[in-house]
């Protein structure tokens, strides 16, 4: 669950930038979305996928 | 479409808050329910947000207002849109705008389709570079177009237009532009597309007038009228 906690934090940061950008678009929020929010989402999703992979592997599903 | 995106954004953030809260409440046990919650909270909702926000990036950058939201573009936008009817600019972009030849709200995009975020992968990278340079203020005025403008963008509208094909001089130009190694530009005969860089350079008498934010078009017109009167007096 610790891994999920860290990933949740990345998702919160990403959402905190992406949602205001969609509602009030401007160059500064666009910059934050492109260079901060997207990497945060990518790290969170890749981390979660790795966790799922480890879980399935430990249960001999794959 | 923007309103729909706003509702989607609000729905996504509410959903994410609920999912993260449920995940936090159930953090003690790693049951199937918690795993599903994690899947939605960490992968599905963020992936949907990424999808919609990226759609927003590529759709919104088609709009001239979005181009003008970087104040560095104001000089070009003001030249195109803001001049008074009496003393309007004669640049190619301004003439296109004034005569209603450009689609509403997509004036920039209609000629710069293959540029910045709307173009090829390289053009998109260039768009990211522009964004980085603007936000970090690591650019110098006047800004200049680095690449070669693709005159096929002009032909996209003009080539099959009768008023264009009736002019005999256009035939060799089309052959040249559509060839492998084009050497002719539409601007050779039709003048500048935008104000010359010298007018967009800090210190030039017209620089401050051209830099007034485009949004306040009425104020700009009255200001320019006053400015023109002063010039006439001199």
Automatic annotation (TrEMBL), chain A:
Superkingdom of the source? Answer: Bacteria
Which residues span the membrane?
Answer: 5-24, 30-53
Print the keywords alphabetically.
Membrane, Transmembrane, Transmembrane helix
Q: What is this protein called?
A: Uncharacterized protein
Q: Which organism is it from?
A: Algivirga pacifica
UniProtKB/TrEMBL annotation, chain B:
Key word Signal present in the record?
no
Looking at the record's lineage, which domain of life comes first? Bacteria
Asked if the record carries the keyword Metal-binding, the reply is: yes
Q: Which residues cross the membrane?
A: 6-24, 36-58
Keywords, comma-separated and alphabetical: Electron transport, Heme, Iron, Membrane, Metal-binding, Transmembrane, Transmembrane helix, Transport
Q: Which residues form the signal peptide?
A: none
Q: Which SUPFAM superfamilies match?
A: Multiheme cytochromes (SSF48695)
Naturally occurring in which organism (per UniProt): Algivirga pacifica
This protein's name: NapC/NirT cytochrome c N-terminal domain-containing protein
